[in-house]
Each structure stands twice: as structure tokens, then as C-alpha cells.
Amino acid sequence: MIALGRPLLADPDWPLKARQNRAEDIRPCISCCQGCVGNIEKGRPITCMSNPQLGRENELPISQPQAARKKKVLIVGAGPAGLEAAHGAAVRGHNVIIWEKNPTVGGKLQLAATPPGKQEFTELLDYMERAARKQGVKIVIGKKADVTAIKRFGPDVVVLATGSRPVLPAQLKSGQGASFIPATEVIDGNKPIGPTVAIVGGGMVGLETAKMLSSQGHAVTVFEMLDDIGTDMPAITRIPLLLELKEQGVKLLPRTTVRELSAEGVSWEHERTHGVLKVDTIILATGEKPDDGLQRELEGVVVQVYLVGDCKRPGDMPAAIADAYSVGLEI
Ligand code: SF4
Predict the structure, then answer these.
(1) For ligand 1, is residue 319 a contact (CB within 6 Å)?
(2) For 172-197, what is each residue's pLDDT tens digit?
(3) Distance 324 CA to ligand 1 centre (A)
(4) What structural domains and CATH numbers belong to the chain?
(5) Is 197:213 a contact under the CB 8 Å cutoff?
(6) Does the beta carbon of 49 sit less than 6 angstroms from any atom of ligand 1?
(7) pTM value?
């Protein structure tokens, strides 16, 4: 006897696909708890990172209807939202191509799979890429999209899934000689990091970065202006992560606002005290803004332009994938 819990939320057809020996077609549960347990904790209906139909059965058709007119659809960006929109549009019969400027697919989903203990996220990325390709989606990597190239290609529809960029919060001054690295660039492992590190922002991204760096031997301090740490995470994943960080000696400082970055380190305020922490590397995990510049440039060039994922509204990945699924149905 095999008992399944969350995997049936991610894919209700799990038993059928298993019986048909189609393991590669099973949408995987990646144990993220962001859509299911996370929403139960907030008193909201459950959703699922892997299954954008879950919790929306009353508003979505059971199977995707074929499009009345086949269109040439260009998706810019092969992150999770781009792959989902591409798959949905291809299922409905459109001719779909993805241009990805990076040498690999995955975007934020690939980054999310990088910190220790998050490797299951790779299973979802592999599934999404495989599912899109199976539906005939062509994926071109290392291809940058600009207006000239898009005009030359001549699509009927463009879906921008170009992600987001880090943003410096308004209350944070960057002094002379200050330098910092966005957390996303740290996670992909291409930046040199000093022995002592300050992470500004104690949400999920900041904490995952802290875990990764402290397990590599860096001394890490996390500053968070809110009353608590990791408030954007479900308790089921937040509590074990906080315990691990404590064991690894990471300093977590809630209710502590970083006011200024300098060449020496960070100036902080906590209630009526303040000080400067000297560190070798400052990392920002303080939020992102949409990377949507191409939308304005495409006005009057392409009639139908959609924005999906972080490029529409930076936020949580289950919402980005669900939104992209809806766009796939709408094209
Ligand atoms: S939200 Fe995450 S943990 Fe929950 S069922 Fe979906 S993939 Fe699994």
C-alpha cells in the first residue's frame, strides 16, 4: 500500500500516470508548503506551487479548450512563469517559442533550488521544461529580446516573463564607497563573499542566503526591520530553518532597521540604540521591482502583450505560476 498526501494536490492523476508507467508526466510535489500548508496557516483556501489549477476548480475549465485561431506566441523569459504560460498556450494549439537570455532555463526557480536542502525545486523545473517541450514549445537559450529582434520575428502575441530587479528601500542610504550585492546574485554563486557578512532583509530570501553562506563558513548577521524574522514563510518550513540558523551561529536581529550602507559596514537602529557593524560583504534581500521596460517599448509594435510573474508583480512563486497559467488560457 502506498499512501500519498501532498503529491495528490500537486497531481491528482498521480495514480493513473503511475499505472500507465508515465512517471515523467507526474507534476511533482516539492515539499515547499507555500501553497498548501502555508495558506491553511493563514486561513486561506489552499493552492499549490506545482499545480496552478488547485483551489481554482470552480473558475477554471477542466481541460484547456483549443484556441479559435492559432497564433504565433513569443514568450520572453524561461523562468517558472514563462514556462507555465508557454505550456498553457501550446496545449491550446498555439505556435510557441521562448527566448531566454541566460544560458540555462529556470530563472528564480533555479535560484530557489540552489540553497542547501532546496534541491527538490529542481524536480519542478525539470518537469515544467519537459512538459513545455512535449507540447512542442521551442526554447532558445542565450537569446536576448529587444524591440528590433521582436519586430523581425513578428509574433501575434508577446508574453513578458522577464522577472524583477533588486531595489534599495527608501529608508536606506548608500554612503560613499558603499557596495552591496543583491541576494539573488549571491545564491547563483558567482560573487566573491568575505568572511563576515551582513544581510539586510530577514524574509525567506535573506534567510535562505544566510543558511547557504553560514554553511560555507561565513559569519552572518541578518537585519530585519519587522517585529519578526521570516514572516513571509509558512511556519512548517520557517521553524526548522530558524533552528538550523541558530545552530549554525547566524545572528538574527528583528526590529532592527539598517539606515545606511558604508564602505565599512552597516549603520543600524534598534529601538533607542544604534551602532555600526563592520563587515566584509553587505547583501541586500529587501525586495524587488518589475523588470518590465520592454512593455513600454512594445507599445504600437505588438498588439497583444501580457506580463506574467515577477515582471508583473514581484511576489510569491505559486501566485506567479497560477497567473501565468491563466494567461496561457486567455491567449
Ligand atoms: S504547495 Fe508545495 S508542498 Fe504543497 S502540495 Fe504543492 S508542491 Fe507540494
Answers:
(1) no
(2) 888 878 889 999 888 877 789 999 99
(3) 17
(4) 1-51 (no CATH), 65-166+288-331 (3.40.50.720), 168-286 (3.50.50.60)
(5) yes
(6) yes
(7) 0.90
